[in-house]
């Protein structure tokens, strides 16, 4: 594969990561602003028909239970987590798109830590989405490493 195609894949991957980060930031702010009662009411509305049809529906009963037992502390933690996680990724994506040298090792470290946390969470949740996200992050790390070698080679030594 030629370098031009690798660069295109790198840029598209960064844009996808940036879009995901923006969604995390919006979700974090929204979660912070929404009241606990609104969260329970929304989940009630979403699960109501399913629970009328089948009062023992596994997904609906667990979702409703989670919403009812969701604490203010948990809500604030998840809001902070989403916002900070998204903001870090946006900062790194901007740095990478602008070919800032600090962004390459910074992104590798940050994504490496995110991958470790995602694998840790997967061990408890078995959420398939975490595996997909981890595979994408590992793929992006390979592209970042490749681009970093090229950028370092082109940059004049200090």
Q: Would you kindly provide a written description of the structure presented here, covering whatever features stand out?
A:
The structure is a single chain. This protein has 158 residues and is mainly α. The chain has helices at residues 3-33, 36-53, 58-68, 72-97, 103-125, 128-154.
Morphology call: elongated
Determine the strand fraction and express it as a percent band.
under 5%
Topology, number of strands = 0
- Report low-confidence residues grouped into runs of 5 or more: none
> How many helical elements?
6
DSSP helix fraction:
over 70%
What composes the largest sheet?
none
The radius of gyration computed from the alpha-carbon positions, rounded to a whole number of angstroms, is 20 Å
Query: What is the ordering of alpha helices and beta strands?
Result: HHHHHH
Mean pLDDT: 88
Gap between N and C termini, in Å?
31 Å
Give the tally of structural domains.
1
* Structural class by SSE content: mainly alpha
Task: Give the SSE map.
Elements (H helix, E strand, L loop, with lengths): L2 H31 L2 H18 L4 H11 L3 H26 L5 H23 L2 H27 L4
Helix pairs in contact: 1-4, 1-6, 2-3, 4-5, 5-6
Brief write-up:
The chain is mainly alpha-helical and 158 residues long. It is built from six helices and no strands.
Summary tags:
single chain, 158 residues, mainly alpha, 86% helix, 0% strand
């Amino acid at each position: 594969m030629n370098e031009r195609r690798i660069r295109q894949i790198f840029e598209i991957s960064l844009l996808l990561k940036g879009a995901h980060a923006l969604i995390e930031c919006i979700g974090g702010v929204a979660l912070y602003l929404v009241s606990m009662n609104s969260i329970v009411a929304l989940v009630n509305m979403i699960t109501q028909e399913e629970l009328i049809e089948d009062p023992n529906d596994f997904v609906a009963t667990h979702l409703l239970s989670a919403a009812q037992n969701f604490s203010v502390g948990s809500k604030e933690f998840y809001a902070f987590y989403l916002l900070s996680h998204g903001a870090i990724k946006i900062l790194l994506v901007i740095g990478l798109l602008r070919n800032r040298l600090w962004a390459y090792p910074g992104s590798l470290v940050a994504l490496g830590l995110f991958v470790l946390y995602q694998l840790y969470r997967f061990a408890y949740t078995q959420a398939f989405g975490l595996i997909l996200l981890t595979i994408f992050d590992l793929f992006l790390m390979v592209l970042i490493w490749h681009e970093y070698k090229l950028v370092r080679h082109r940059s004049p030594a200090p």
